[in-house]
Structures are given as structure tokens and as C-alpha cells.
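Appendix B.2, paired examples.
Example (i):
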Amino acid sequence: MNLDFSGSKQRDAIEAEMPWDERSLSVTIYERLAKTAHEFSERPAFSYQITSGVKDKSVTLNWADTLMQVTRAANMFRAHGISENDVVAYVLPNCHETVFTLLGGMISGIVNPINPLLEAKQIAGILRETGAKAVVTLRAFPKSDIAQKVAEAVKEAPDVQNVFEIDLLPYLTPPKSWIVPLIRPKNPASQSHHAVVKNFNQELAKHPGDALTFEDIQKDRVTAYFHTGGTTGTPKVAQHRASGMMYNGWLGANLLFDEHDNVMCPLPMFHVFACQVIMMSQLASGAHGVYPTPAGYRGEGVFDNFWKLCERYKISFVIGVPTAFSALMQRPVDADISSVKMAFSGSSPLPVELYKKFEQTSGVEIVEGYGLTEATCLVSCNPIGGEKKIGSVGIMFPYTDVKILLDTAEGPKECGMDEVGEICINSPGVYEGATYTEEEKNKDLYHFDCYLRTGDLGRIDPDGYLWITGRAKDLIIRGGHNIDPAAIEEVLAGHEAVAMAGAIGQPCAHSGELPCAYVELVKDAEVSEEELMQYARDHISERAAIPKYLEIMTELPKTAVGKIFKPDLRKSAIMRVYNRELEQAGLNGRVFGVVDDKRRGLVAQIDPSAKDEEENIRILLGKHTRPWEWAEE
């Protein structure tokens, strides 16, 4: 039976039952999986279909099947030299073998999921950083360059000894299954690197699935590395312990899911939302996870077929990010979704108008939450069955303590109610002192030795709700994907005509933010904005980081010590984007200023002469996460 998480008092009551350390939880991933497989052996665990059609082939594994295949994977990795301190990386789309690799990699050693959208150079950088000894990836497949990129990356990752390739062909049906072997692309790089290439499923079949061939030592340890970007040559790699994963799973199983729930999760299996929140909650509860298409929400036809897929699988919970919910609102609800109890949104802020439109259109309650890779994810969410404050990220989960702190000459000072400062977290998911693999990157990362500094700015209101008002760090978050502005700035600064460059995220109703850039030219240099845009397209390796807008300024705004003052750039971008949208909508209202409000962050101020257009302006600008208000008359 789910615990009551309908408000702060109920959350406190859960904590008062007993300290976290006294709760009886599994110590290892294998122990947790084995318990669930024993209790719910014949119930569905994972469903997957390579194409999104409502009647297309679907492959479902029960919990007994899952345990057997994961056990084989763990034994296979151990037989190939992976011990508990060795790393199995994977660069994969979603499929059942990704689940086997994730869980089997954690049981035998340390698993390292890598974003398959990264370029070969970024993948190589992560492989070197983690010292990966094995890589699991795709066999060359039509319409995918994953195999080719990984083969190139392995050339620059000397520790990799084995590459295991997964073929998606068995998931297809005729005639596609006949055509793919005829058009399968070549991958000559896979024959020219130093590692041994093996067929994943053929190797898997050689190993027993009824028991581990090695001891599952009953101790907490690091079992996963998750990179927090990869857009530069030196990504940060966060360390996740089994205990932090058990915490995420315990929350899901006790606050949300049970073995009768079907969870629609078209999120990528390299991201903490899918891996550490949803999959760990499945392991702890016995819930059934549905993962349609290799690319999840990005897959062909997923949005068009989404509601019918929910009907097909009798989905009870929908998992997504704001960009996905925005895309869903552009399609009719064309199926019986009466089984859907709730939708969960994370990874980036959810615009108020999108929140309202989703609930009104679908009739499904949507709950917004907050988490981060460095804390093994979960931090807070709007209470289940309780008051939801639209725009907030809710109340803290049980056993998670959040402090809002400010740096002062005397040390960190705790902020008062509704006072904005840095969000700092202490929870079972925080690995105090060792959040990142590199010791240097853990310096100055904690207050009071145990409160992780998130770099996010926020406040806690009198009811205990957490509000995020901005970011102390400059990451651009495009649809939940982190983009380091340095990846843009360093490229533009390499142009002979550019003296300085500043990159920020400009507002986007669909993606939350899109990268844009402002440059200051070398004295007497001449270059056009279009020429610089083309230079950026040619030299920025990650497509998602290519600016959508570039502007040459006579002089970039700077601080007293000469550092680019990005708040002024953000204000300029808000004015430009909002005014363009107001004009395109045929409205007379205009933003003539942006103020920095201590409680709400940057707030656009609208000319009060347009108050007769208030409803239309509210709907239009409500699609963005940044607030607006009428300027004083």
C-alpha cells in the first residue's frame, strides 16, 4: 500500500516512523531484482517495440525472464574481466538488451551509460575519463550512425578491450527484416581499432542465467557512472552508489507504483530519469515498464500513436519532459486513456500554460518534480493527491533535506522563508565528498560537508514548497538536455574576427531554452552574423549546441573585472523573443524591460497600455517558463 505523500505533514510522518538507515532495503541490485522476480515472476516487466504502430510487433519480458537475462549479462561481463571496480560503458538506443546491460553491468562492475547523440570525440572523452574496459553498442543499422561513432571513439580509448554489438534485426518483422540485411551500412572502423568485437547475444547465450558465477558481495558500492554533459572534452562524471538507487526505487514503490501498474516511459536509457527513477522504481515495485522505439519520444510516429499506445498497454502512469508534453498537445487525444492515473514531468521547468492545457485536454493530472544527476536524481515533486502549486517543484521527498544557502564572508548562511539562494541537498542519493569521479571537481561542492551545492537558485515558501528561480551556473537546458555554453563560446572565439563571445539560453515555448550567442568583434574586424553562424555550424561538434540566433554587439556587457555579464544578455533575449512572438500573434503589447526579481528571477515587464489584450498575452507568454507582469503605469 502506498504511503501518504499528500503534503508536508504527511511527508514528516513518514520520516517519523523510523530513521532511513533502519528501513529494510536490499543492499545490492541483484538482491533487489531477485526478490521482485521471485515475488512477481510471471508478471510483465519490460515491453518494447522497435516501431511505434499500435498493432506492431511487441516483445514483453516477465520478471523471471528479466532476471535470467540480466544474470547472464552479469556473468558474461565478469567472464570478460569486469570486476566490481571495472567499467562497462554502453552507447545504445532503447531495447531489451539495454536493460540487460544496465543491470548486468551494475551487478558485475560499474556501468556507464553514454548519450548516443554525442559525437565520436565526446564519446571517446567519456570512455577515457571512466577507464571503460568494455563497450556495448549497436551493430551497424540503417538510419543510425551509433556503431560508426563508437568504432571511431574506441580508437581513442585505449582501456577498452571488448566491444559487444547488439543487432536490432530480431525485433523487426517482414518485409523490413528481409530488407535490412541488404541495406545494412558498412562499419570499417570496427575492424581497425584495437578492441575485440563480439556479438552480444551470442556471447550472452554462453553463460548461465540461473545463478551468478561470482559472489554478490553484500556491501554498498559505486555501481554506475553518469556523465552530466559531454559537450566539452572534459565531461563531469557523477558516481552513483547502489544505496542511492535503492532510495529512488523505494520512493517510487512506496509513493506511486505497485506490480499492477503499467508505466509508459519513452525516455532514453542513458538518462537518470529513465534509469534511476523509473527503472529502479520498477525493480522495487514490480511495475511494468513500456519503452516504445529505440529513440523513445524521438522515434518515428511515437507522438502520433502515443495515446493509442497508452490504450494498448492500459497505461497507468505517463513519464515525460516538457518538450514531449508540448508535442503531445499538438495531437488529439484519440484513444481510451481512462486507465491513466497521472503524468510526471521532469528534467526542465514546465510552463504554466502547458500544465493547464495538458490537464484540460487529456483529463490527466500532471505532477512536476525536480532532480539532478549529482544526487542520483530525485529531490522533490508536487504532492500526490495534495495541493499542487503550479510553477513550483513541490515538497521534498522523505529523507531529503534541502537548505537554501548564501555564501557570506563568515561562511554559508541559511536563507529565510521565500529568500532566494542556492539550493543545497542532503539525501540518501548524495555521495558526500565523492560526487564526481575526479577529486578536484568535488572541491567546494558541499556546504557543511554534506549539503550538495546544485548551482540552482531557488526559495522555499511558508508551506514548504520549493521554487526554482534561476541557475547559478550557466548551463543551457534544451528540452532537458544540458549544453555547456563554453562549447559554443570556445568555437566562436576561435574565429579571427571575434574578440569575445557569450552564449546563453534564449526562451523557447517548446524546448524551454535554445542556445543563442552574442559576440564582440576585434577592433576594425569585419564579418557578418551569417558568416559567424556558418562558422558555428561548421565547427560546433554537437548539433544541439549550434546557436539558433547570433548577434554582433558593439561591446558585450561586462562586470567590473571584465567578465561577460550574462544577466544582461538574458534580458535582451527575453525581450527579443517575447516581442517577436507578440508581434507575430498580431498583439500590440510589448516588453519594454526585464527586471531581476529576487523571488521570481528575470521577469518581463509589459506595456500596461495593452491590458485589454491580457487574456491573449497570458496564453501566449504562459507557454514560457519565465514570468511576466504589467509594468507600473
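Example (ii):
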Amino acid sequence: MNESVLIANAERFLDGIRHKWVEVDEIKDFKTFIHIYNYLKKNLEELQELRDTMEIKGYKTPYRSLMKYGRASKSEMKVDDIYDVNKHTQYFRMNAAAKKNILDRVKSAIASHKIAIGHLEEFVILSCSNCKGKFTGHELATFLKGRCNCGSSDIKFGINHHGVYRLEIIKYLPLSGDYMVKMSELSPMGREAFRKIVRILKHEKRGIVKTLSLVIKVFEEGRWIRKRVNIDAKDQMNYEREIRREYGSNARIEFMQFHRKKPSIINDKHVQTALSIGYVKLAEKKAREVFTSILNDIIINKNKLQVYDKTIQKARMLAKKMVEDVSDFEHIQDELINDMLFKEKLLDKKGNFDKELKIDIESREKLERKLFVEVPRIMILWDILKCYLSTSYDRRSKYSGPFPNLRPNLDTNQIKAYEDFDEDVVIIMKDFMHENIEYVPDIKNLLSKKFEMENKMKGLHVKTNSNAAAAVLLNTTVKLSIEVAARVFSVDPDDVKVERDKWNTFGKPQTKKAKKFLEMIKG
């Protein structure tokens, strides 16, 4: 396919996605769900084909061809030739930029579609009336044709209350790859929250050795020669023995350099960006809905604050009309604000604010930061925390879910990203935004316990109720009551008690594996 045609087709396809809204609010039955699910799945397949075609055609490194173009010294060229070279170079540079931008958009769209599909898959449980099978998560791909594998079309639709999902973020995701546009629409505090979330999701694991570069000395044909060698790193590898086995017993290592990989919590920049945009925009919407009611509860004098706001707005409009030089705008605006506030008796001659007004301004600024900066951060970290606590290592390794490219476990360095939540913000989210959230002190310890438990249980094939087990962790580690812990993971308190009792009654193991498990748990 011609390059200009490929780019045009990709842009047309992405624009089509942008103009078609995904109405997740309307998902109330199987028919509506499978229609939206199919639409996103088909889009994802088309986008992945576009990406693969573009990468084969060199869109990943579009500027490489420019490095070889026009290398001749300009002193050796005629003036007309220099003009032609510059003109052609500009054309190729613009073409390369178009290739890079369209591939970037396609990759962003792929990441957003994966996130949207992951949230949809966590949202529902589909049951087949014929074969009595129940399906959730990635198993839902079975129903892409609108029927079960057994051939039955009698499908029952149900909501998966154990899933980790937020369907509301789907409409805020850059499904058409327009992440730059969506980032530009964020408020100043929204941009700050966005940067914070991206920084958290980028938090890298301590470096793991991936490859080694070596300079070795080998005796060949009666003389010593040096060779540069690259080898893949393996656990417990004896590099000197490996080199001697490959190059002979006389081989000696002169220089060794380790190349490390540092995977992030979410190891894909487009997924990081899309998730950050989605959560920030959703949190902003929720924050705006509750901001006024919360503010009215904490301010001292509502009237003074309203007069102050109207004065600021009026002074800004007057300054725009009066100013001739843009550089004088702020100075004129400040003078107008001071004069007008003085007339309203909200500012004294020394420039000090009225005491009640000053307290209310500070309270409002503090509330804005809590709602528009902290809420998005806590919201996404809480969802990822629930994902880690309520799923197994194997499931996280094999199935991406609502957080594609999420690391199946975190090391101590990455767990540091989990700073304890602000308790006041958690209360606001719980009481005003009706979030199913609880204040959890020492989250780092909770996560460490979860990963420690998974390591001990690895290979023992102990059957557990994952959501009830997560509630047990909250109950035993954070000391939340069984009822509260059960509500967080939408499980019956009796199931949590059964799971806790299971942990406590490992004292009478019946098999060798059970005995080994008990020893590990107690250790």
C-alpha cells in the first residue's frame, strides 16, 4: 500500500472512532454489551494490523533515511543543488514526522481500546442457559458471535460485583489516539494530577540484568586476539565458565558490562498516558459535582467569599478593556482588585485580607487540591491495589484486565509509590462520592504481605476464594473488621470467616504439600 494512502486510511479510521461515542451507560443487557464489546474488539484488531503494517514499513524509525541523504559537503555543491537538497530534505522530514505521528496515534488508540475492553470484561458475568457455563474476564471472547460455544443464544447477563472496573472512564480515554488533545483540555490542577499519576505508573523496578557485553581475550592461530561478545543473562550463570565453554579453555574475560532492564509498574507509556487521562477526567467530573456542597460545610462566611469572587472577575474584565500593553495587564488587574476589595471592606489599607475571608480562601484552595489533585491519584492507586489483592500471580501474568501491562508483582522499590492516602480525602470519596473505599494505613506493608503470601503458596495448588482471601488480608494486616473488609471486596462476611478459619486450621495438614504449606506460613 502506498504510504500516503496508508496514512490517510489510518487517519480516516481514527476520526471515525472519535465521532462514534461508546455509550457504556446504556449497558443493561447482553445485546447492548456484546454490541459495544464487539465494536471495541474489531477496532482493536484493525488498529493492531495498522500498527504492524506501519512498523514493517519503517514508521518506527522514519528519520533514519534522512541521515544518509545529502551528506555531500555543501562547499562542493552548486547553489541550485543546495536549494534542491534543502527542499527535498524538508519534504522528507515532513513525511517522516507524519509517519511518526500517525504511528503514535495508532499505538495510543490500541492502549485505550485494551483498557476499555479490560474494564468491560471485569464488569459482567455471562451465563449460558444451555451448558450452564459462567464466563467472565477474557473468557467473554467466546460470545463475540452473540452465542455460546455450545451453540445456544440464551445468554443471561449479570454484573460481576467482584470485578475491578470503572466503566465511566471509557468515554474519557483517547480511543482515537487523540491523547494530546485530551491532555490540553485538562485544568492546571488536572495537569498536575496527570503528571503525578504518570510518575507513579513509571516507577521502575530495581534493575534486572538482561544482557552482558564482554571483551574477551582468545588464543587463536598462535596469537592472542580480543573479541567483543554479547550474551543473554541467566540466573546463577557462571559467565567465565560459559565463555570458556564457547571459546576454549584459554579464553579470558578482560571487561564486562551489565545491561539492565527496569520495568515500570505499568510497562507501556501509552497505557500510562491513557489511564492517567481517564482517571483524572473522571475524578474532575466527580469533584465538580461535590465541590460546592463540601465547601459550604467548611467556610465561615459564604457572602464574603462570593463578593470576593465577583470582584476578581469584574477587575479582570475591566483590566482587559483598559490595558494597551499586555505586559501591564497583571499590574493593572492587581491595582483594580485591591481598590475594589478595599471599597468592599475586605482589604485594609495595609493590604491585609479580612480574617474570615482569608481563612475561607485558604480553605477553598486546600479543598481544591484535595479534590482535583489527590482524588485522581487515590482513585487509580486504590483500584490497582484491589487488583493486586484480589487476583493471583498467574492471573495477573496471563490476563491484562483493566490495567494492561501491569507488573504481576512489585519489588520494594516500586511499592514505595504507594504513599499512604490522605484520610480526609478518603472520607470525602466515601461519604460524598459514594466510593467503596476504606482508609488503609501502611499500604506498603499490606502489599508486601500479599506478595509474600503468594511466594509461599507458589506451586502448592492451595484452592482459595481470592476475594475473600483479600478481605482476610485487610482484616488481619490492617485490622479492619470482617464486615468492612468483606464490603470492600463485595463478598459475604461468612465467606471471609471461612477463609480465615482455613488459614488458622492449617495446623492439621493431611498431605505432604499441606504440611509444607503450613511450615512456610508459620515461617
